[in-house]
UniProtKB/TrEMBL annotation:
Main location: mitochondrion
Keyword vocabulary terms for this entry: ATP-binding, Hydrolase, Membrane, Mitochondrion, Mitochondrion inner membrane, Nucleotide-binding, Transmembrane, Transmembrane helix
Lineage per the UniProt record: Eukaryota, Metazoa, Chordata, Craniata, Vertebrata
Family: Belongs to the AAA ATPase family. BCS1 subfamily.
One GO CC annotation: mitochondrial inner membrane
Domain AAA+ ATPase, first and last residues per copy: 222-358
Record PANTHER family: BCS1 AAA-TYPE ATPASE (PTHR23070)
Name assigned to this protein: Mitochondrial chaperone BCS1
């Protein structure tokens, strides 16, 4: 694209003709050159506008996608691969192409804009270990509005991709990074909990989100903690994912057994978590065992690089107060292994047992899976299932249905085959 190349060199080389090097022509030429130099500086200062966006800024990734969309003709790309292994074992990868570091020229509205993506070889972001990057937009004119428009467009573009989806974040160093692709929202009614349980939690969370004033008026930190406990495979994690979808929230998944987690880092992460997100601490029993079981007063979760202490965890949980609604969910398979200090009111405000399938749940799951089967079949399935195996997880039932995808009668006759 010759025009863009021309513009590029124009912006890069303020002194036209600097390369002539005709030394002998004398003072006149030197003066002219000086004049051109000064002129260019004045021009740059008054008739060009720039916007620098560092990579740690939230809009940085939005802008990269925006640039990719607009710099369609660029021949220089870099790739970012997302990799996600599903619980089912299915692996999902996606390549995202972004303009590579260097200069790109974009025609936007009625203007040429130069986009320069730079990557510092010497400088590394200490939090994440990735090279320091930035993009700089340069345009002719004085109207800064153009940059606001671009930022807004980039944001809308990014949010549109997330619409109807749940974004999962994981901690990378000191910040939260989206993990994989935003997942399609899981409908709440696809997770069948015991009658009334889902409603109890949903109502509580919605009431909490809707009443910031109640908390500020009383000087109570605007946070609420939830604990779901019970045997594995009964829907604790699935329910939280579905709840996030229902609320339009994202999920910040935090593993307390992460060896590089220290008190400071946990504290920092909890305080910088994205707005409108649920902090999810899975299997909290795995990180700390009940203090009474240990001789030391303040057990350390893992002796790795960082050290997460039990009191550090409590402090971080108590400290996550902000004007934003802060929702913390914890899950565990063994509530009796948890230290009472971790789940006392104020840290955990609502505890809910999510257990093996009841008759009501089994019938409900059957009807959801086989919507065309007559309704009494659900009860029949539930009764025979409980007769053959009184303690059955929803995950087992789901696995059983998958074997009889199109065959509700088969699912009932062979109910004794659940769990082999
Ligand atoms: N109550 C439920 N209703 C529907 N599906 C469920 C339910 N409980 C578990 N499942 C299914 O079983 C699998 C494991 O559930 P998960 O939520 O990870 O259990 P937990 O976190 O309690 O160990 C998921 O694929 C989920 O779809
Ligand atoms: Mg789970």
């Amino acid at each position: 694209m010759p025009l863009s190349d021309l513009l590029d060199s124009l912006l890069d080389n303020p002194i036209f003709g600097a390369g002539f090097g005709l030394v002998g022509v004398g003072t006149a030429l030197a003066l002219a050159r000086k004049g051109a130099q000064v002129g260019m500086i004045v021009f740059r200062r008054n008739y060009m506008i720039t916007l620098e966006v560092p990579s740690r800024d939230k809009s940085y990734h939005w802008l990269l996608s925006w640039i990719t969309k607009h710099a369609r003709h660029t021949q220089h790309l870099s790739v970012e691969t997302s990799y996600l292994a599903h619980e089912s074992g299915r692996v999902h990868t996606q390549f995202d192409f972004h303009p590579s570091p260097g200069n790109h020229i974009i025609w936007y509205g009625t203007k040429w804009i130069r986009v320069e993506r730079t990557r510092e070889k010497q400088m590394v972001d200490l939090h994440t270990g990735v090279p320091w990057e930035s993009v700089t937009f340069t345009a002719l004119g004085r109207d800064r509005q153009i940059f606001f428009n671009i930022l807004q467009e980039a944001r809308e573009l990014a949010l549109k991709q997330e619409e109807g989806r749940t974004v999962m974040y994981t901690a990378m160093g000191g910040e939260w990074r989206p993990f994989g692709f935003p997942r399609r929202r899981r409908p709440l009614n696809s997770v069948v909990l015991e009658s009334g349980v889902a409603e109890r939690i949903v109502d509580d969370v919605k009431e909490f989100i809707g009443n910031p004033k109640w908390y500020t008026d009383r000087g109570i930190p605007y946070r609420r903690g939830y604990l779901l406990y019970g045997p594995p495979g009964c829907g604790k994690s699935s329910f939280i994912t579905a709840l996030a979808g229902e609320l339009g929230y994202s999920i910040c998944l935090m593993s307390l057994s992460d060896r590089s987690l220290s008190d400071d880092r946990l504290n920092h992460l909890l305080s910088v978590a994205p707005q409108q997100s649920i902090i999810l601490l899975e299997d909290v029993d795995a990180a700390f065992v009940n203090r009474e079981l240990l001789p030391t007063e303040n057990p350390v979760a893992y002796q790795g690089m960082g050290r997460l202490t039990f009191s550090g965890l409590l402090n971080s949980l108590d400290g996550v107060a902000s004007s934003e609604a802060r929702i913390v969910f914890m899950t565990t398979n063994f509530i009796d292994r948890l230290d009472p200090a971790l789940i006392r009111p104020g840290r955990v405000d609502l505890k809910q047992y999510v257990g093996h399938c009841t008759h009501w749940q089994l019938a409900q799951m059957f009807r959801r899976f086989y919507p065309t089967a007559p309704s009494p079949d659900g009860d029949q399935f539930a009764s025979s299932a409980l007769a053959s195996l009184p303690e059955m997880s929803a995950a087992q039932v789901q696995g059983h249905f998958m074997l009889y995808k199109m065959d509700p009668a088969g699912a009932i006759c062979n109910v004794d085959k659940i769990n082999g």
